[in-house]
Amino acid sequence: MITDIIAAKDAALADIEAAASLEDIVALTTRYAGKKGELAALKKQLGSLDSIEQKKAAGAAVNDAMSAVDVALDARRAVLSAAALAEQVENERLDLTEFMGAPTRGHAHLATQAWERLEDVFVGLGFRVAEGPEVETDWHNFEALNMPIGHPARGEWDTLFVDHVPPGGEPGSTVLRTHTSPVQIRTMLAEEPPIYIVAPGRVFRRDTPDATHMPVFHQIEGLVIDRNITMADLAGTIDAFTKAYFGPGFNSRLRPSYFPFTEPSAEFDIQRPDGSWIELGGSGMVHPNVLRAGGLDPEEWSGFAFGFGIDRMAIMRHGVADIREMFADDIRFLEQF
Ligand code: DAH
Question: For ligand 1, what atom is nearest to the CA of residue 308?
């Protein structure tokens, strides 16, 4: 009997050592270590032995065999699981080198290129670049721009409100800026005139994306404050800009319009060399209430302002039909510019 037990144990240990997979280990566990396994079957035969001594000796041999099998199964299982894990890790590894190909140089995004070119052109015309925060107070974004609470023109801007309540402020008085115009107010409050600034930046509206709208986009704002500034200065600046940015074959015109922060207000269009007109942005003479909100005396200072979309400018320049293409981050689109 003991010989049988030792033979079964040796066979089990050899099989376990030869196991090639975790499935083999499962099968071998049933075969040797389970309640219906070979060693259990031998254990059941112990009762048929004649003497107590024989039973004791055989019982000890079976127990020894069973624990040796358990230890061997655990050891082999550990080795095979480590190998399986290593293989899985290797298989799931992302080989990013595949996408690198030959090293190529990237370049600035189309929106960044337009932004920087616009800055260059305005700096060339004598403007300085100013900035303001993307998260604004209702006061800077609307009220100081001659749109008090309840002003119907607020409806033109599909505003995104922010939960944050500033110290001493009202709930609902913090917004993601809907335009770059609040930078006008911040600049007037921070600096003494004369002021000649442009303020490019990101703006936010509660808008559904379509071919001509994005909820997040870029604008550039212009502000001039000096003595005796007139509408002729505005028209001359827009025209100088048009020719510097688009080329000498382009013209510009102002069309009467309405904005709460300018009076009079005008939209400006540019004319392509083929004669067609395209609408570019808004402009006008800074409203006296806006000058006052900026801490300036309208009797002493006057100025003009303008604002237009940077992304729209970029797609117009490059003949892109859908503004959403700009922000889809498809490298095949971006590579073209
Ligand atoms: N802030 C306006 C908008 O987002 C654009 C604009 C119009 C800016 C007239 C100006 C301006 O500075 O004078 O639609």
Answer: 5
The rounded Å distance from CA 320 to ligand 1 centre is 24
CA distance 327 to 86: 39
What is the layout of strands, in order, in the sheet containing 160-161?
Answer: 135-137, 174-176, 160-161
Pair 211, 301 in one domain: yes
Range of the domain at 284: 110-334
Q: Which of 314, 131, 300 is nearest to 212 (CA)?
A: 314
- Kindly report the protein residue whose alpha carbon is nearest to atom 13 of ligand 1: 283
- Domain stop point among 41, 57, 92: 92
**Of the candidates 20, 208, 10, 198, the residue with the CA atom closest to the CA atom of residue 115:** 198
Distance 221 CA to ligand 1 centre (A): 7
Residues 116 and 83 both lie in one domain: no
205 pocket-lining for ligand 1 (C-beta < 6 Å)? no
Whether 262 is in the pocket of ligand 1, judged by its Cβ within 6 Å, is yes
- Give the per-residue pLDDT at 57: 85
> Considering the entire predicted model, what is its pTM?
0.71
Is the same domain home to 88 and 117? no
Q: Which atom of ligand 1 is the closest one to the Cα of 179?
A: 4
Q: For the ranges 149-163, 235-249, 286-300, which has the lowest average pLDDT?
A: 149-163
